[in-house]
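Q: Got a minute? One more chain.
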Amino acid sequence: MALARLDEQKAQSAVRIANNPFVPKVYAGSGAAKTWGYPSSIEGAAPSIIQARTDMALFNKPLSFELAKARENARGAAISAQSKSDQVAYQTASLFLDAQQMTRIADSLKLEVDSRERVADAVKLRVEEGREIPLENKRMAVDLARARQRYDALNEDLDYARASLAVVLGYAAGDRVQPVDDDSKPLEAPESEEAARELALQNSREIRRLDSQLQAKGFEVREYQAARWPVVDVVAQYALFAKSTYETFFTHVQRNNAQLGVAITIPLLTGSAAKGQAAQAEAEVMQLRTQMNQTRNRIGLDTQKSFQELRKAQAASEVARLDLDYTREQVSVLLAQLGEGRATQQRVDEARLNEQEKWVAFYDAQHSVAKARLDLLRQTGTLVAALR
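A: Always. Here it is, folded:
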């Protein structure tokens, strides 16, 4: 965002530079020189004690179009800064969801490791009592090692996710940011695919930026086409003469001299450069129009895909929730049977392990829904407003 704002400031400064010819400028100065013979001009002015001059463009079509182009470029830079704001918001929210998801899964995997340790201890005891074959010990050891490996790997990924979240928030790479669960409602997404597509085309920063570039390029075409227009400048000058310099050559010398008027320049032969530059600019205008049509089509397709991905993620989340509810009820039934002596502790432990796997699948499904919703809001250009 800081870099984008600096680009915007540079574009605003370019407007002031382009406006410079239309702002009056005054220059004054003095000097000392020895004159031998006739007092000839120095840099187009007669020798004087004090001299001041000013100039300003009064009517200059090429420079006017150049100023309009600079203003349009500044508007495009502001749009680019807004687009960068959307990207930063999406990146930050996405990293937050990733870190939040990994935290939840890490908690579930920790419970799974604890459960497998208890199951491994129980199997080891049964093997020692001769009720299980020794091969079961090795199977439990493999399952436990696999669970620990998943838990350790996820913790490393979680540490990287927290570090990434810290960096995007402006902290040092050695800092860690831990997301906190809250009870906020899910972000509101468009209800229909058509509404999402209309919002995306209406709010697209990319289309607005291309339109700004198209307008700026149009001013550039007109700037080159205006090369044959006359140019009118306001000119003014004042000079204080030394009489001793002129008395030898003139019978009457006026010390205070001033001129005020306009300078008109009419181009007669401008050469072929202006036409060639105008033709190049017109070709670039056609390229921008083609690119804008392609962008509109791509945004429509991307929004359609994002909307469909959200619907598929929501359906998968509902399936994962139903599966989790079913598994939890199975655990409740087995616990009741365990209390009545009709189920073994091993079956209960295995059911709890299965429940932890279902929790992980449920968290994954919820995470997919949240990420799909973020992507759809980014496509429609409403992400920043929704997050606020």
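A: The mean pLDDT is 89.
Q: Perfect, thanks.
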